[in-house]
């Protein structure tokens, strides 16, 4: 993604603000307050996702993949937009939910339902900060590495995730690494890949060595 998350969210924040000003100009200030709130939240996410700050914990995602009620309410303009966009994008592009790299290793996008998971009761490495763990996946081994879209985790997170994945593969359990969209992880063998794709490559190469 050339522009990066922070720039794209800043553009969305600007659009919300312009809509708020437009409706306010015609006397619909009160009705337009949700637009103002969506703009302010988008600006906050844009700042927190900037590479110089990189604060995915802002959204409050728990280690078990759930979101506190307060975080869900506060960041609802961003969280629900991201989820709706993900499902719409998958529907419109028709892309496969995941790809198999080799036996027992899969990469893909956010699994919004069980049918989007690879077979074999895979262990899940969740590299998203904005998508929840679906309740139906409670029986799956799970590791949350909250990361902004187009960004990479910290070296310590990478190391612990690789060790976790290696333990699962040693037991012959499949491993599914996912970010927001499968198309990004399909580029993991591209030397020019950045952010989450580069991190995913480290996982796969470590498992294959």
Brief rundown of the structure:
The protein is α/β, with parallel strands linked by helices and 209 residues long. The protein is 45% helix and 10% strand. It contains seven helices and five strands; from the N terminus they run H-H-H-H-E-E-E-E-H-E-H-H.
Task: Describe the protein.
This is Tyrosine specific protein phosphatases domain-containing protein. The chain crosses the membrane at residues 6-23, 30-53, 65-82. With 209 residues, this protein is α/β, with parallel strands linked by helices. The chain folds into 2 domains: 5-89; 97-208, Protein-Tyrosine Phosphatase, Chain A (Alpha-Beta Complex), CATH 3.90.190.10. Helix content is 45%, strand content 10%. The chain has 7 helices and 5 strands; from the N terminus they run ααααββββαβαα. Strands 1-2-5-3-4 form a 5-stranded mixed beta sheet. A hairpin with a 2-residue loop joins strand 1 (98-102) and strand 2. Helix 1 (5-25) runs antiparallel to helix 2 and helix 5 (155-170) packs parallel to helix 7 (196-208). Mean pLDDT is 86; it is low at 187-199.
Structural class: alpha/beta
Using the CA coordinates, give the radius of gyration.
18 Å
Adjacency order of strands in the biggest sheet? 1-2-5-3-4
SSE succession: HHHHEEEEHEHH
